[in-house]
Design brief:
Layout (H helix, E strand, L loop, with lengths): L1 H23 L6 E5 L6 H17 L3 E5 L6 H9 L6 E6 H10 L7 H4 E17 L7 H10 L5 E4 L5 H13 L4 E4 L3 H9 L5 E5 H9 L3 E6 L14 H4 L7 E9 L4 H15 L2 H9 L3 E2 L4 H22 L5
Parallel strand pairs: 1-2, 1-3, 5-6, 5-7
Antiparallel strand pairs: 3-9, 4-7, 4-8, 4-9, 4-10
Helix pairs in contact: 2-11, 4-13
């Protein structure tokens, strides 16, 4: 009997000793970052900045996998259905983590229960751009025209429920005007029609709008943030124009499934903290008009929860949905 009991104890020790050993060997193969947006957007820009620096910190290659569509639902759901082994990371942003809760009646995931934030890396404002030959020269003129011609002006986004969609829909709702929404799968596809004069407007991530604004291929009418942006110092905020009290920045970072082993989460959080403190990352982000976050785990969780609650309330009160 004693020998049998001893064998059981040894088996338990061996079994429970395996889990930490497995965690310690992670990662033993390439890691993928799934971005629920197409090439050229804020999700993609963030993913590639992170992947380039995260790989050396983990000692493995980190690849970016674009899974656009469904208003960020397809890519987000792909990570939710992948094994919780740390090899499938999600680029979580304001859109798929905070906005979707208020936009969808039957969201297939709970961002606060199904995912945990590893670390937020960067935030950007949105820039409201217009085709360069649009007659209206500023946001006040545009709103006045839209009130006189409801539904005539069009705006693009990378899909229902994305930050681009919400920024424009909320601005229009607060300004009391009706615009026609035209969703695209990627920012690149939307810009083709804006540059071709077939679409009037788009609220886009400042990092991707910046080059087109600077080249004069589109004109910037406003930024969504509470303060003006250094990359567009002459462009007013929406609040400054007086048409709507909009205060909106979009953030991005790494999230994993909530049931990912704690040692893997700890390893990722340590690596992301080093990444956020890397001067080279700050230089890249600042040149794209963004800001780097330096947050503790507790501060990150509080920010995410605050924005989920804030935007859910605002979107439901405004009756803005993506369904």
């Amino acid at each position: 009997m004693f020998g049998y009991a001893l064998s059981i104890i040894c088996a338990c020790v061996l079994f429970f000793g395996i889990a930490p050993a497995r965690a310690q060997t992670w990662p033993s193969k390439p890691v993928r970052i799934v971005t629920p947006g197409g090439p050229g957007g804020g999700f993609d820009t963030s993913a590639r900045i992170i992947a380039e620096k995260l790989g050396p910190l983990l000692g493995q290659s980190v690849v970016v996998e674009n899974r656009p569509g469904g208003g960020t639902l397809i890519g987000t759901d792909a990570v939710l259905k992948a094994p919780a082994d740390g090899y499938s990371l999600l680029i979580g942003g304001l859109s798929n983590i905070a906005l979707n809760v208020g936009l969808y009646k039957n969201l297939p995931y709970d961002p606060l229960k199904d995912f945990v934030p590893i670390g937020l890396t960067v935030s950007w404002s949105f820039t409201l751009v217009a085709r360069k030959d649009l007659p209206q020269q500023n946001l006040r003129e545009l709103v006045a025209y839209a009130k006189a011609h409801p539904g005539e002006l069009t705006y693009a986004s990378t899909g229902n429920g994305t930050g681009q969609h919400v920024a424009m829909a909320v601005t229009a709702q607060l300004a009391g005007v009706k615009l026609q929404h035209i969703p695209y799968r990627t920012a690149a596809a939307a810009y083709q029609d804006i540059l071709g004069g077939r679409i009037d407007l788009m609220f886009d991530n400042a990092s991707t709008a910046m080059t087109l604004v600077n080249d004069g291929r589109v004109k910037a009418l406003a930024v969504s943030s509470a303060k003006r942006q250094a990359i567009h110092p002459d462009v007013p905020t929406v609040m400054e124009t007086g048409v709507a009290p909009l205060d909106m920045d979009t953030w991005f970072g790494i999230f994993v499934r909530a049931d990912t082993p704690p040692p893997i989460i700890a390893t990722l959080r340590e690596a992301m903290a080093k990444l956020s403190n890397d001067p080279a990352v700050a230089d890249i982000v600042n040149r794209t008009g963004g800001n780097v976050y330096h947050l503790t785990v507790q501060e990150t969780e509080a920010l995410v929860r605050r924005d989920v609650e804030r935007w859910t309330k605002l979107l439901r009160e405004a009756e803005i949905t993506a369904d």
